[in-house]
Amino acid sequence: MFLALRDLSFARGRFALMGLVVTLIAFLTVLLSGLSVGLVNDGVSGLQRMPVTAFAFQADVAKDSAFSRSAVDLDRVGVWARRPGVTAAAPFGNTLVNARSNKGVEIDLALFGVQTGSFLDPDVGRGSRLAGDREVVISRTAAEQGVEIGDTLTLEPAGTALNVVGVLADQHTFGHVDVAYLPLSSWQEIAGGVRPGDEVPEHVYSQATAVAIRGDTDLAAGDRVAGTSAMTLKDAFGASPGYTAETSTLLLIQVFLYAISALVVGAFFTVLTIQRKHELAVIRALGASTGYLLRDSILQSLVLLVVSAGAGLGLGVLAGAALSSTPMPFALEAGPIAAATALLLALGLAGAAVAVVRVARVDPLIALGANR
């Protein structure tokens, strides 16, 4: 460790340059992690916060667009409710609409139609829960756009008016659109294209988007009986608009970033270790073991990586806090940031270890002779 610290102190400029690169990589890692979490929250936080185990969609519906294409008869709800292990089942409706408040605020909404009093009926942070037709409870993020309790939202172009009676405590979004809960019958009329004053056909009240299921049950067996296509809640995230494409793209970027990080850090330590080749050969000639050289270089790398990654982490958190206050979908969570930082340290140490092992295996006499 003495040699490692001595070398760090002696070659400050060289290590500062390496540390700057690691700091920038750690900074980028934090920002990418925050963007990934933010996009996921903006895409499916409305689903994540539902007390649901699975959704049963229309049979053979396209899985990547099930929420927008599925239509199931309400009698499927009873079939699922009687399945072994199911503790509750309720119809669920989903439609994306454009609306304008009586104060002139234009807003896109994902309407979640639920039966009032069912396990899908949400608790509110402010105001009151759903109690009658044409009432809506909106996401906190919708309220931040200027829609408040007591406002009237008019859907375009149908002209259906909805009264805002409550605001949810947290962010509830679906496909980057704010969620608004409303009674199932109101949702069915809107999804059926019924305009104010129109006579409502009876079949409008017979369907929903999916059956929401709570409990531990055999979904495949349930599908055979109910004639549906069920997905777990996590699998159903992929049925929300753009979710799979966004998460796949970000995952690919993260994989490339980690691979590039390992290559860059490993290359830095390889060059550094090769520059110390003759110094290490002298130490080997004096009787130092390969294990001693490995520990010395790994500790040196660890000090550099921890200090540099810590600086990048701090800068990333500060930048992330600033970005979180903007409309950009960005969210800092300790778990993903800690995992990304730990992975960066592990890849950096692995690259350093490979470089040291390569040099430490050289015969000291040959290494010393090469200097002549």
UniProtKB/TrEMBL annotation:
The chain crosses the membrane at residues 15-40, 251-274, 302-323, 335-357. Signal peptide: none annotated. Its main location: membrane. It holds the Pfam family FtsX. GO terms for cellular component: plasma membrane. It is found in: Cell membrane. Keywords: Cell membrane, Membrane, Transmembrane, Transmembrane helix, Transport. It is a multi-pass membrane protein. This is Putative ABC transport system permease protein. Residues 255-364 form the ABC3 transporter permease C-terminal domain.
